[in-house]
Amino acid sequence: MIKSMTGYAGVDSSYGDVTVAVEIRGYNSRNLDIALKLYHRYGILEDRIRKTLAQRIARGRVEVKVTIQEALENTEVFRINEPMAHAYYETLVQLKD
């Protein structure tokens, strides 16, 4: 079996209200070089992802993009309390003077 270091794969998976999409691209390179794109919010997972990749891949440049989407639980429409907004405005005008 030929093992190529150049390739692309992508997968989406859902876990309840969370959808995870992973894209991985591999390029020929002498050393292992992992470039990981992950939302800052999920940065705590970065070391674990890197270790998992390093256990399975010996060398090459590997670009991994992980996208995590959470379903919105509260889809209520944003409403402005106009009397309260007007009261804030009037207070700010008085403070300015």
Question: Which descriptors apply to this entry?
Answer:
97 residues; alpha+beta; 4 strands; 27% helix; elongated
Overview of the structural elements:
The protein has 97 residues and is α+β, with helices and mostly antiparallel strands. It has one domain. Helices cover 27% and strands 38% of the residues. It has two helices and four strands. The chain has helices at 46-56, 82-96, and strands spanning 7-15, 18-27, 32-38, 60-70. A four-stranded mixed beta sheet has the order 1-2-4-3, with helices on one face. A hairpin with a 2-residue loop joins strand 1 and strand 2 (18-27). The longest helix has 15 residues, at 82-96. The radius of gyration is 24 Å and the shape is elongated. The protein starts with 6 loop residues before the first strand and ends with a helix. The mean pLDDT is 87.
Structural domain count: 1
The N- to C-terminal Cα distance equals 80 Å
Figure out the total of helices: 2
Strand content: 35-45%
Over the alpha carbons, how many angstroms does the gyration radius reach? 24 Å
- Based on secondary structure, the structural category is alpha+beta
Find the count of extended strands (DSSP E, 2+ residues): 4
